[in-house]
Amino acid sequence: MKIKLFVSATEAKNGFGGVLDALADGPVGIEKNGKPVAVMLSAERFDALQQFELFESLRNQVLERQPSVLGVLHAYKDAKLSSRDAALKLGLSDSGQVLDLMGFAQLGIPEIPDDLLRSQLESLQALRVQQ
C-alpha cells in the first residue's frame, strides 16, 4: 500500500474534510516538520488491515501446530462446527471463507506436509490481498 498524498499536520487540521475525501484514493501521510509522523486510513482499509493481521497470526499458529487453532479446524473438518462458527471461534469476520479456501475440510490437518500447508496459506494470503 503506497502513500500517494502527504500533507503537513497544519494542512490536515485546516483541511480535514479534504483529507477525509482524499482517503477514497488511498492512505494519506501526515508530516510534522517535514517528517512523516502518521498515516490516515479509511475505515474499510483499516478493517482489511486488521483482518490481514489476524490471518497472519492464525497462519503462524497453524504452521506452529497450535492446539487451540488446530482444535477448531479439526472440529470444522469433522463437521462438529459450521464454517461460520469456526470463523467466529477464530475471530474471523468472513463466515468461514478463509477456512473453506484453505481446504481444511478436505485435508487431514496433522498430516498436511508443511510445504503444502505453506503453499495453501500463501495462496490464500494472495487472494486476501487482492480483495
Give the structure's gist in a few sentences.
Helix content is 58%, strand content 11%.
Describe the structure.
Strand 2 (28-32) and strand 3 form a beta hairpin. This protein has a 3-stranded mixed sheet with strand order 1-2-3. It folds into 2 domains: 5-41, YefM-like domain (YefM-like fold, 3-Layer(aba) Sandwich); 44-130, no CATH class. The protein has helices at residues 9-14, 16-22, 43-63, 67-77, 83-90, 97-102, 114-130, and strands at residues 5-8, 28-32, 35-40. The longest helix is centred in the middle third of the chain and has 21 residues, at 43-63. The model is unreliable at 104-112 (pLDDT under 50). Helix content is 58%, strand content 11%. Helix 3 packs antiparallel against helix 7 (114-130) and helix 4 (67-77) packs antiparallel against helix 5. The chain is mainly alpha-helical. It is elongated.
